[in-house]
Amino acid sequence: MVEMTIYGVSFDLVGKQPIVLLKTADGNRYLPIWIGAVEATAIAFAQQGMVSLRPLTHDLFKDVLEVLNVQLRTVNITALRDGIFYADLIFSNGAEVSARPSDSIALALRTGAAICATDEILDEVGVARPD
After folding, report:
1. How far apart are CA 49 and CA 59, in angstroms?
2. φ and ψ of 44, to 5 deg
3. Out of 11, 58, 85, 93, which residue is the most buried by the measure of CB atoms under 10 Å away?
4. Where are the alpha helices (DSSP H) in the chain?
5. Are 89 and 70 in contact (CB under 8 A)?
6. How far is CA 18 from CA 13, 21, 27, 53, in A?
């Protein structure tokens, strides 16, 4: 697994669909993941430190984890099948849950969890940093 950071949220210039762009911790490869508009907003809100008057879904999930005394340790982006990305949430109690990468990233931003991707995903769809 390769540690990733969030570079930002943008839009696909052709399809006008939101993209979250992850980059490797060493900054030499990028991983674009097409996401929905709601998830793009949730990620952007967390990046900007915006807080809604009432908890949004990812804030609610974070609050539930805190009440249960469980921490989200890692988000692992694990597969790409038929154009769909897959991720696993890894919790402090040893539990693992399959999730969409967009939701996983939004939750990781709120909890401070690490985000990682497999070498295979990066080899398949990662983009090398242009010089």
Report:
1. 12
2. -65, -40
3. 58
4. 37-48, 57-67, 101-111, 119-125
5. no
6. 9, 10, 21, 25
Q: What one-letter code names the amino acid at 66?
A: E
pTM for this model (two decimals): 0.90
- Is 22 within 8 Å of 31 (Cβ atoms)? yes
CB-based contacts of 54: which residues, under 8 Å, 6+ apart? none
User: Which tokens sit at 41?
Assistant: 């907003």
Asked if residues 32 and 21 have their Cβ atoms less than 8 Å apart, the reply is: yes
Structure tokens at 54: 């009432």
Structure tokens given for 96: 């693992």
> What amino acid occupies position 51?
V
